[in-house]
Amino acid sequence: MKNFMHKYYVLLLISFILTACNILQPVSIAIDPNLFQWYQHKQQLQQLKQFQISGALAYFFDQQKIYARFFWQQYSKECYRLVFTSSLGITKFEVFVKPTVTLLIDNQGKHYSSKNPQEMIQKFTGISLPMDNLRQWIIGLPGDSHDFTLDNKYYLKQVNYQQNTFTWFVSYQNYNTDPTIHLPSRIELKQVELGKKEKYIKLKIDNWTLK
């Protein structure tokens, strides 16, 4: 009986060692080329520290429409200047955003300051824009959202983002044809809030200047 138990434990030990060896052998993992192309494009976008954008904005709410031109100048990762003008080129107001303060200058030359650019812009326009994410959405990054889809070229197609009582649906409708890096040229943002009518913002980007 002792000999039998001894052989049993020896066989059990050998079986365990062989199993462990198989587990520890290198495992080849297939990398999805689709994801690789997206991450490659994402890295390019994340390297954009300074750029300038000019274009047009249309805001649709409660059967009303507001049109404006805009100019976005990104100085660094967290510092930028945003100017809104009329279709005739008359400045309505401009915003300077830094990590610790947001400064707004209206068309009368009056200065206003706040720590929150989103609240500042909402106060003067009635538009609640998630500015920290918008500066990433506008170049084609998902920002804080983990809920997004890619198109057949592995660029952003749709971003869904929840912020407090709002849900934002960001749709990328077109990209430029620059051979070095593809950047959005048409973006639509839909704001949904429970119990209220949907609001839309359409951005048409005419020019990109990269530095």
Topology of this protein?
Elements: H1 2-24, H2 33-46, E1 51-61, E2 64-74, E3 80-85, E4 91-97, E5 102-106, E6 111-114, H3 117-125, H4 131-137, E7 147-150, E8 156-163, E9 166-175, E10 184-193, E11 199-210
Antiparallel strand pairs: 1-2, 1-11, 2-3, 3-4, 4-5, 5-6, 7-8, 8-9, 9-10, 10-11
Explain how this protein is built:
This protein has 211 residues and is an alpha+beta fold. Helix content is 25%, strand content 42%. It has helices at residues 2-24, 33-46, 117-125, 131-137; strands spanning 51-61, 64-74, 80-85, 91-97, 102-106, 111-114, 147-150, 156-163, 166-175, 184-193, 199-210. Strands 6-5-4-3-2-1-11-10-9-8-7 form an eleven-stranded antiparallel sheet. A hairpin with a 2-residue loop joins strand 1 and strand 2 (64-74).
What is the residue-mean pLDDT, rounded to a whole number?
84
In the CATH hierarchy, the architecture is Clam
| Biggest β-sheet strands, sense, barrel | 11 strands, antiparallel
**Side-by-side strand order of the widest sheet:** 6-5-4-3-2-1-11-10-9-8-7
Shape: globular
Unreliable segments (pLDDT under 50, ≥5 consecutive)?
Answer: 2-29
Considering the protein shown, what is the CATH homologous superfamily? Lipoprotein localisation LolA/LolB/LppX
Distance between the termini: 82 Å
Counted up, domains total 1
CATH fold label: outer membrane lipoprotein receptor (LolB), chain A
Estimate what percentage of residues fall within beta strands.
Answer: 35-45%
Continuous helix count: 4
Q: What's the CATH class, please?
A: Mainly Beta
Order of helices and strands: HHEEEEEEHHEEEEE
Mind telling me the C-alpha Rg? Answer: 26 Å
Helix % is 25-40%
- Derived structural class: alpha+beta
Give me the count of strands: 11
